[in-house]
Amino acid sequence: MNQAKLEKRAMLNQESFLSSKNDNIKSEWIKGRIFLLICIVSILFGILSLAALLIYVFWDALGWLNWQFITSTPSRFASKAGIFPMLMGSGFIIMLVALFSLPLGVGTAVYLEEYAPKNLFKKFIEINISNLAGVPSIVYGLLGLGLFVSFLDLTHGTILVGALTLTLRILPVVIVTSQEAIKAVPVSHRRASIGLGTTKWQMIRSVVLPESVPGIMTGMILALAVAMGETAPLIMIGAATSIFTAPRNIHSSFSSLPLQIFAWSDFPGEGFRHGVTPAAIVVLLVILMIMNGAAIYIRHRFSRDKN
User: Fold this and answer.
1) How many domains does the chain have?
2) Which of 84, 155, 277, 279 is close enough to 64 for a disulfide, judged by CB 3.0 to 4.6 Å?
3) How far apart are CA 237 and CA 148, in angstroms?
4) How far from 19 is each of 6, 7, 8, 24, 190, CA to CA, in Å?
């Protein structure tokens, strides 16, 4: 009799346990569906907002974006205005920034990851570099003005000063991304290279750097895309908002495409605000999309070669 009661009670407990378990599973399934719905709505909101903005800009740019616009200089008449000097200025700036940032950023990352002793001072340096990556760009403009123009007595508003200032702006980003790329190289690869009798520098040159190239180049190109769109640092170092001749050397005065867009957006004419300005924005967007696409291509290309 007692045995039957115990068995009945055990069965009731088991049914109660299974029922509560099923309720929990159902509750978690509902929560998962709600979270998925929120994610989908968030993605659609972002995509639709971006699409609406792009359609608005491209629609205003229709009829203004042509070869004459690309090859002409700025003008007080919207129908004659162009962006050639600013394109050349932006191109000069980005090439110099890449020339300065790549060896400095990668060299710093290699030293911190491979040579620097692991102590509190190294941790302090890394924390400060990470914090510098989030400093507002106008602060770098003030730094460039004080360091390169006031202290080093370089001419304000020149290609060289602009490139050095933007190098300061993106250098922390390049260092951090290069460090992460170097960290991703397996330790076993380093040990295998050292085990074959190579020196530390040979190991870094033949193993670490080749395997970290995709991450380094991706971070570098994305950082250059950020520099391409900067305006505040260039205003602080005295770059012109409009210029009528393309720069010829690193000591020439210059303007950049974002600066010209900023200047045109304040012009009273309808042709400037709803024609020339959107056309220049489209050109800048295309350049940034090409740079981002190049970063994606390089990463996939090197990853495929590695596999």
Assistant:
1) 1
2) 279
3) 9
4) 20, 18, 16, 9, 55
Q: Is residue 249 part of a domain?
A: yes
SS3 of residue 158 by DSSP: strand
Could you report the per-residue pLDDT of 154-166, keeping only the tens digit for each? 888 899 999 999 9
Beta pairing partners, 158? 253
- The number of C-alpha atoms within 13 Å of 189 and in the hemisphere containing its C-beta is 16
Distance CA 72, CA 35 (A): 52
User: How far, in Å, CA of 129 to CA of 140, rounded?
Assistant: 14
Tell me how far apart the alpha carbons of residues 165 and 179 are, in angstroms, rounded to a whole number: 22
CA–CA dist 179, 196 (Å, integer) = 25
Per 3-state DSSP, the chain is made up of helix, strand and coil in percentages (nearest 5) of 80, 0, 20
Distances in Å between the alpha carbon of 104 and those of 97, 131, 168? 11, 18, 10
Task: Specify whether the CB–CB gap between 129 and 177 falls below 8 A.
Answer: no
Question: Residues 108-143: pLDDT tens digits?
Answer: 999 998 888 888 988 999 899 989 888 888 999 999
Query: Is 172 within the bounds of a domain?
Result: yes
Is residue 37 domain-resident? no
Full domain range(s) for residue 257: 67-306
Query: Looking at residue 199, which CATH number applies to its domain?
Result: 1.10.3720.10
214 occurs within a structural domain: yes
Per the prediction, the chain carries an average pLDDT of: 85
